[in-house]
UniProtKB/TrEMBL annotation:
SUPFAM superfamilies: Rhodanese/Cell cycle control phosphatase. SMART domains: RHOD. The lineage of its organism: Bacteria, Bacillati, Cyanobacteriota, Cyanophyceae, Oscillatoriophycideae. Residues 28-117 form the Rhodanese domain. This is Rhodanese-like domain protein. PANTHER family: FAD-DEPENDENT OXIDOREDUCTASE, PYRIDINE NUCLEOTIDE-DISULPHIDE OXIDOREDUCTASE. InterPro entries: GlpE_sulfurtransferase (IPR050229), Rhodanese-like_dom (IPR001763), Rhodanese-like_dom_sf (IPR036873). It comes from Lyngbya aestuarii BL J.
Length: 123
């Protein structure tokens, strides 16, 4: 009876703004994965907090190792065009719940959302 009164995050869209993703993360919804398809070097320099690196050349071959097809996936690349290509590849590989993160990392940073970097260890 009161289920209509409980706020819920907006459903995932094929093209999502960074604010849509941040809203889901703030909601505490763990059933999503953020994939960065840029090069490993670009990922290590800076990426959306919590994202995993699956560069375009290994995206489809490696995604099945860790991510179930029913999972919600937010993907971003170097450009919106690259992001769209990655999303299309994922959908063709059997992942129906894919959102293209419009503006990618640049849009994420522009609004001041958290990013991570991986430091190189020099031996």
């Amino acid at each position: 009876m009161f289920s209509n009164l409980i706020p819920t995050p907006e459903p995932m869209k094929a093209q999502s703004r960074v604010q849509d993703l941040k809203s889901r993360l703030d909601w505490g919804e763990p059933a999503l994965t953020i994939i960065d398809t840029r090069s490993r070097e670009a990922f290590n320099a800076s990426h959306i907090q919590g994202a995993i690196s699956l560069p375009m050349d290994v995206l489809v071959s490696r995604i099945g190792e860790t991510i179930e097809p029913a999972r919600d996936i937010y993907v971003y690349g170097e450009t919106d065009e690259e992001t769209a290509q990655a999303a299309a590849k994922l959908r063709e590989a059997g992942y129906p719940n894919v959102a293209e993160l419009t503006g990618g990392l640049a849009a994420w940073k522009a609004v001041g959302y958290p990013v991570e970097a991986i430091s190189a260890i020099i031996a």
